[in-house]
Structure formats: structure tokens, C-alpha cells
């Protein structure tokens, strides 16, 4: 074997090692995502439920009712209720089968970007609502 062939074999071994490390890292990340997904979904569900409660409390305060506040609250409630329903479908109970839990977890991971996008829009609505209420109070 010439020096060039040995160098080529060594480069191939390094490439295989890098690919193996990349695969192990990806699988570990996927495993951790799947393992942590149920807790994340429960936390997000609680967060959305709290937002719905607060929105309804603001909606019931006559002194805060302006057209702008009503529009923001309406939008936030509509998106929050839709998100709550989506997340509720993905949350599993302890009595559910392992197959259902796995399916819901994978479904949650696939919807992650969409859920985060809706949460960001709700956060923007919340900020707008805070500004409107601050204007009303001043």
C-alpha cells in the first residue's frame, strides 16, 4: 500500500467516524425531545389555559372595554382556544396506551413550529393589550 492509499483510507475512516458521531448526536437529540415532549405539552397547555382565563377576566371588566381591547381580546381568545384544543389532543394521560403516547409525542414534535408561531402571535397580542390597558389607566 502506498502512502497515498493509506492517507485515503485514513480520511475515509475519519469521515465514517464523523458521520457516526453526527448520527449518535441526532438520535440522542431526538430521544431527548421525545422523552421531554409530554412535560412540555402539559406546560404549554397550562400556559394557554391561564391566558384564556386572564383574557376572560379582562373581557369582563367594563372599564377596560374599548374597540381596540375588544379586537385584541377576541383575536387572543380565538387563537388561544384553537391552540388549547390542538395541544389537548396531543396531551396523553397515564392510562393511555404506549402507542397512543408515542403517536401524540411525535405529533407534538411535528407541530412544534406551528405551536411556537401561535404562541409568539399570542405574546404579541398580550403586549398590545398591555399597551392599550396602560393607555386606559393613564
Word description of this protein:
This protein is mainly alpha-helical and 138 residues long. The protein is elongated, with a radius of gyration of 24 Å. 14% of the residues are buried. It is built from four helices and no strands. The longest helix has 57 residues, at 3-59. The model has no long low-confidence stretch (mean pLDDT 81). It has one domain (38-137).
- The number of distinct β-strands equals 0
The amount of helix comes to over 70%
Structure class: mainly alpha
Percent range for β-strand residues: under 5%
Radius of gyration, in angstroms, nearest whole number? 24 Å
Distance between the termini: 84 Å
Largest sheet: none
- Reading the helices and strands in chain order gives HHHH
User: Ranges with pLDDT <50 over ≥5 residues?
Assistant: none
Overall, the morphology is elongated
Oligomerization state of this entry? single chain
> Please, how many helices?
4
- Summed over residues and divided by their number, the pLDDT gives a mean of 81
* Integer count of domains: 1
